[in-house]
Task: inverse folding
């Protein structure tokens, strides 16, 4: 009982840390692995050191990593962008038809390609369509994210959760899922979700305003004239330590018709210069009083952000970004990317961040409002750190590589679907062929892997093993059954679906599956079912279709800022669809898998 108490306490602490994210989720996961390993040195019923690191070599972890690389190969060859644009052309000028084509194309591709990469391709295209046809971006982006998530439920490789449950099932002797084992219910989920998103979700989503108004930039920028007696004359902004002393950032210096934008820190200020500055009224007034400057009575100083060839754009921090956990100061952002960050919209913050930006830590899904030269957008679009929300030059379509990448992914699917080899082997074969066909370089392959997911799995898989080895799963399963067993196995399956949905809404969907998988197996055995497949399908579909918060899936975070959504938008839009899926799963899982 002592061991059960220990592992139960660890699970509770992990759930709290996963849900609150006070500490990075991947760091929590790795810490779990280390803690369980150390405890296992002294308690026989916990994991051994070999079992503690089994998450790193687990078939699911390796397969998911391989799928990231395969998806990136198709993206780098230009095939994804070319295909998506050709499909969008079919939409014509009808808003409904455009919406339908976008949804079908995105959902179909997400069944075979990592959905974060699918959204990275469709996000800028969708926003361009929204501007051209005067469609609210908010009416496109959340439905696009939702349909990519639901599309992933249609095949084994559509989502990492499917691969993970399949791998854990095989390890415990119940066999792997086939490529299309999940397809019957997945297609029904897709059809219901598609209808819901067209006829119900779109009218529920609010409309947006332009970038300047959305970020209320007019309230945070001021034009300041350098007088003839100013003590700033003859100094550079860097030498004057203006930001450190007054909390004011100089965005641009205007000198007659000459506009200096990107070399502001090292530009010597002269009398008559006009400075476009960002900061509070108090900070600007203090600067002007101390340095002999004059505030210009310009009604819309933010309009000067885009003169002189400058542009404004939004960039979303991608799931694989190297900026996650860093700040503007630590990352040397302006020097590295040639852009100035004017504001940050964070999914977990109620207000847009416009002050003290240099010390704000970046997180996945943060939307940065950037100012810079037009070439900056193309450069940023090539970086795996961002998803740019306006359409840029697409990767050049290399027809031989595009054909190769599509053929390789098709081969991976067919080899696994016809049982020629397991998905792990076919996916790794596909990775090798992607490299040798030069669809990707080795460095691009490394960069394409979402290491957050890999380290998360490495940490939580031994937690699931610890629950089993200590006997905690049997006790938890018995507790669930004691209140529901009299209603029959279908009711118990429904309860597991509901609990998994809640878990996946507040923490990683993969972590939710790893914790609930052994409990589901134990419950199935106690009920005397011949196969645990109905329970496995319940937790798989519940975790794979978590829609009610921005945090259930990275794609929800990716569209949060560009769509101008609030947290409540996900609840109002996602919860009804999750309830529909819950009812469908309760009714249909017994039909397909009992």
Result:
């Amino acid at each position: 009982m002592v061991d059960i108490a220990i592992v139960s306490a660890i699970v509770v602490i992990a759930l709290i840390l996963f849900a609150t994210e006070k500490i990075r989720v991947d760091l929590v996961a790795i810490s779990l692995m280390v803690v369980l390993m150390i405890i296992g040195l002294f308690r026989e019923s916990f994991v051994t050191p070999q079992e503690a690191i089994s998450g790193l070599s687990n078939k699911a972890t390796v397969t998911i990593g391989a799928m990231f690389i395969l998806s990136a190969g198709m993206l780098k060859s230009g095939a994804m962008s070319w295909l998506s644009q050709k499909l969008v052309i079919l939409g014509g000028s009808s808003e409904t038809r455009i919406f339908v084509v976008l949804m079908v194309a995105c959902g179909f591709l997400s069944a075979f390609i990592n959905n974060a990469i699918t959204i990275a391709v469709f996000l800028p295209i969708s926003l361009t369509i929204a501007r051209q046809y005067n469609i609210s971006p908010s009416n496109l982006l959340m439905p696009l994210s939702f349909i990519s998530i639901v599309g992933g439920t249609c095949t084994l490789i559509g989502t990492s959760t499917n691969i993970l449950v399949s791998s854990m099932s095989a390890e415990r002797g119940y066999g792997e899922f086939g490529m299309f084992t999940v397809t019957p219910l997945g297609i029904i989920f897709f059809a219901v979700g598609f209808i819901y998103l067209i006829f119900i979700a779109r009218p529920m989503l609010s409309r947006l305003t332009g970038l300047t108004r959305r970020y209320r930039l007019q309230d945070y920028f001021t034009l300041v004239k350098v007088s003839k007696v100013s003590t700033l004359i003859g100094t550079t902004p860097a030498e004057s330590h203006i930001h450190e002393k007054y909390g004011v950032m100089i965005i641009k210096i205007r000198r007659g018709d000459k506009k200096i934008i990107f070399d502001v820190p090292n530009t010597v200020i002269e009398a008559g210069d006009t400075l476009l500055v960002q900061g509070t009224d108090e900070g600007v007034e203090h600067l002007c009083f101390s340095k002999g400057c004059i505030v210009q009575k310009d009604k819309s100083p933010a309009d000067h952000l885009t003169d002189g060839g400058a542009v404004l754009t939004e960039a979303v921090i991608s799931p694989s970004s190297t900026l996650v956990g860093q700040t503007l100061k630590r990352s040397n952002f302006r020097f590295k990317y040639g852009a100035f960050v004017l504001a940050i919209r964070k999914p977990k913050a109620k207000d847009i961040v416009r002050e003290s930006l240099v010390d704000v830590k970046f997180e996945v899904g943060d939307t940065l409002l950037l100012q810079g030269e037009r070439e900056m957008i193309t450069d940023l679009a090539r970086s795996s750190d961002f998803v740019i929300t306006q359409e840029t030059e697409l990767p050049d379509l290399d027809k031989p590589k595009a054909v190769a990448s599509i053929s390789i992914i098709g081969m991976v699917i067919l080899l696994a679907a016809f049982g020629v080899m397991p998905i792990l082997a076919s996916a790794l074969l596909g990775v090798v062929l992607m490299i040798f066909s030069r669809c990707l370089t080795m460095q691009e392959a490394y960069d394409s892997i979402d290491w957050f997911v890999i380290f998360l799995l490495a940490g939580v898989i031994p937690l699931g093993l610890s629950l089993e080895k200590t006997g905690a799963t049997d006790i938890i399963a018995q507790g669930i059954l004691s209140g529901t067993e009299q209603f029959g196995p279908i009711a118990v399956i429904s309860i597991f679906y509901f609990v998994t949905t809640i878990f996946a809404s507040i923490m990683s969907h993969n972590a939710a599956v790893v914790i609930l998988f052994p409990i589901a197996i134990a419950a199935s055995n106690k009920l005397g079912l011949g196969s645990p497949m109905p329970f496995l399908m319940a937790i798989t579909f519940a975790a794979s279709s978590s829609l009610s918060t921005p945090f259930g899936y990275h794609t929800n975070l990716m569209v949060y800022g560009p769509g101008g959504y609030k947290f409540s938008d996900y609840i109002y839009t996602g919860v009804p669809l999750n309830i529909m899926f819950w009812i469908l799963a309760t009714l249909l899982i017994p039909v397909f898998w009992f």
Notes: The chain has a mean pLDDT of 84. The domain at 212-306 is CATH 3.30.70.1450 (Alpha-Beta Plaits). The beta strands are 221-226, 249-255, 258-260, 274-278, 293-295, 310-317, 340-345, 367-373, 386-388. Residues 567-593 form the longest helix (27 residues).
